[in-house]
Amino acid sequence: MKTKSSQAMKQTLTEGSVGWHLVKLTIPMIWGVFAVIAFSLVDTYFVAHLGTKPLAAMSFTFPVVSALGSLALGLGVGASSVIARAIGEGDRNRVQRLTTDSLTLSVLIVGIFIALGLTTIKPLFTALGAGSDILPLIEDYMQIWYWGMIFLVIPMVGNSAIRAAGNTQIPSIIMTVAAAMNIALDPLLIFGLGGFPRLELQGAAIATVIARATTLLASLLFLHYRERMLCFNLPKLQVVLKSWQSILHVGLPAAGTSLITPISIGLITSIVAAYGPVAVAGFGIASRVESFALIVLLALSATIGPFVGQNWGAKKYHRVQQALGLSFLFCLLWGILVAVILAPTAPWLASVFNRNPQVVAIAATYLLIVPISYGASGAILVASSAFNALGNPLPSVVLTLTRMLIIYVPLAYLGSWLFGVNGIFFAACFSNLAVGLGGYLWNRLDFRF
């Protein structure tokens, strides 16, 4: 048992080609991130066939679902940061303690948010602009989705711990299997195929919960039996609290940072809602296509965290500098490529989800304007991930707060007043470009590359 544990902790990222490490870690993560986003894309595709109102209802849930996903992401970032540095330092016992305590902390926090979510569905979505005709559909979806939160948060934290050890293949496989289950269950439960009852939006929520449950079991089994990163001895309360403190030192700001985006998108959705359900549906489709377009950059940012953490813990600072330089260059090139591809194909992509000409026009306009700034969005992701990996979450908070609440939301209100819905899209593009440049310069200054 001891030998296996030692071998697992020796799988570090502190030796070998920097560029090759990033490629090997990022490629599996691309597929893993695609699998995660496939949940949303597939749900959107099937729900769109129920009509504009169900699609608008799902679009209203997107900011809230993203917010709670951001909570899980923040906890995962905090766990990954401290675990990766402990691995880089060679402290195996601390790795096991931190991994176990990150999971117990997640259980506690999930319970609190389930209770809050179930009691605030009506007032929350009413505040977001949902009308009386849309609200019952939202309730059908969220009453089930909230109960499945434990299957979202715990596996996300567990997979973050696995990635911190330098293993991106297994988390990607786990996420892919869950996505495949969701794809298979969606048409059965939404439309009542194969003898199943027709549950419509409730069916989409149930399919998601069942698929997520598989990731919970798989991640815990792998952490225990393969990576040997869990411990079952009962520690002193002070030890657990110390672990929670170190995780939350990064995790809370990271969660707060992640929450800023969906909260801001919620405000943006309320602005878009003034143009009617058609505009909300178009905005929702464009947001999901955007998530797909950013998969590679999201995968790269997820890879940078463990790489920076392990090498910083091992005091190999030159490898950190080289990795960041390569990552920023790639973000720029990828952003240009995606913008060129989306410009002519956006109308067709939007029509895959909904054939309403007005919905397609709004989604296509978004996908013509905003992708110009995708390279800058990638720079923000990479810079934030690097800062978090060092246990210094403040710059990430400042970058996201500036981008979303200081620039994007105020400019969206102004742009909507001056140019209609297109003004909102120009505000998104400008905020990405401005803060992306700032994030790159800040990262370069702190890491001196």
Mind explaining what this structure looks like?
There is one protein chain. The protein is an all-alpha fold and 449 residues long. It has one domain (2-8, 22-447). It is 84% helix and 0% strand. It is built from 17 helices and no strands. The longest helix is centred in the first third of the chain and has 38 residues, at 52-89. The radius of gyration is 21 Å and the shape is globular. Residues 1-8 have low confidence and may be disordered.
How would you concisely characterize the structure shown here?
The protein contains 17 helices and no strands. It is mainly α and 449 residues long.
What labels would you give this structure?
disordered N terminus, mainly alpha, 449 residues, 17 helices, globular
**Most strands sheet:** none
Count of the separate structural domains = 1
Mean pLDDT: 85
Radius of gyration: 21 Å
Pattern of helices and strands: HHHHHHHHHHHHHHHHH
Separate helix tally: 17
The proportion of residues in beta strands is under 5%
In terms of per-residue confidence, which ranges show pLDDT below 50 for 5 or more consecutive residues? 1-8
Question: How many DSSP E strands?
Answer: 0
* Helical content (DSSP H or I, runs of 4+): over 70%
Shape: globular
Look at the helices and sheets and give the structural class.
mainly alpha
Q: What is the terminal-to-terminal distance?
A: 42 Å
Question: Could you outline the blueprint of secondary structure elements for this entry?
Answer:
Elements: H1 2-9, H2 18-48, H3 52-89, H4 92-118, H5 121-127, H6 135-147, H7 150-164, H8 169-191, H9 201-225, H10 237-273, H11 277-293, H12 295-313, H13 317-353, H14 357-369, H15 374-389, H16 394-419, H17 421-447
